[in-house]
Amino acid sequence: MTDHPVFAALALAIVTTEGIGLRPDTTVFATQPSSQEIGRMERYDDLLVRVEQQVPGFGGMFVDREGRLAVYLLDKSQLGAARAAIEAVFGGDSVPTAGVRALQGQYVVSQLKAWSEMAGAVLELPGVTAIDLDEARNRVAIGVEHKSRTRAVERALSAIAIPRQAVTIQVTEKIRQVRPPRVSRPRGV
């Protein structure tokens, strides 16, 4: 990480959306926060929880191969309410022109978010590369460098009471630290 304030601001302000089902070059902005939320940047997972607060049973969303917004719901009959909540939180143009479809969810976003945060301890295990609320699968995703790490991750999940069926463990590449480019400062600054 850098101490340069421009990089810090960019890191906080930009949310890429390639892995969440929106167009790869899209930037997501939350609607205006309430007065007690000012000064706190909402992450994408927080925005999903805001949708769930309006539609209990909401489990995540992604854009499918046909260009439709696929929405996980515990009660698929809530699709209309979910669409309205998504538009309220993400903006009126957040639903693709191809429309929406409901998928049967097993977990709500707030459960997955809590489990993702609890699973943070698993990152301390050798060979664990990532933990994510995977809204495209209605699961918590854990990345490992090699499949031999799977059993250790399963034991750790059991110890912190995260249901194994709520988690996908995927072999991923080793995460490499990317350093920001050096920025030269003009004289006198």
Fold and architecture overview:
This protein has 189 residues and is α/β, with parallel strands linked by helices. The chain has 2 domains: 5-104, no CATH class; 109-171, GMP Synthetase, Chain A, domain 3. It has helices at 5-13, 44-54, 79-90, 109-118, 150-159; strands at 58-63, 69-73, 100-104, 128-134, 139-144, 167-171. The chain has a 3-stranded mixed beta sheet with strand order 1-2-3. Strands 4-5-6 form a 3-stranded mixed beta sheet, with helices on one face. The two termini are 21 Å apart. Residues 1-35 have low confidence and may be disordered.
Characteristic key phrases:
single chain; 189 residues; alpha/beta; GMP Synthetase, Chain A, domain 3; 2 domains; three-stranded mixed sheet; 5 helices
SSE map:
Elements: H1 5-13, H2 44-54, E1 58-63, E2 69-73, H3 79-90, E3 100-104, H4 109-118, E4 128-134, E5 139-144, H5 150-159, E6 167-171
Parallel strand pairs: 2-3, 5-6
Antiparallel strand pairs: 1-2, 4-5
Give a brief rundown of this model.
This protein is of the alpha/beta class. The protein has helices spanning 5-13, 44-54, 79-90, 109-118, 150-159; strands at 58-63, 69-73, 100-104, 128-134, 139-144, 167-171.
Order of helices and strands: HHEEHEHEEHE
Low-confidence stretches: 1-35
- Continuous helix count: 5
Query: What count of structural domains?
Result: 2
**Judging from the principal axes of the Cα atoms, what is the shape?**
globular
* Strand fraction: 15-25%
Helix content: 25-40%
Strand order of the largest sheet: 1-2-3
Q: What is the number of beta strands?
A: 6
Q: Report how far apart the termini are.
A: 21 Å
Q: For the report, how would you describe the main beta sheet?
A: 3 strands, mixed
For the CA atoms, what is the radius of gyration?
19 Å
Nearest-integer average pLDDT: 82
Helical/strand content category: alpha/beta
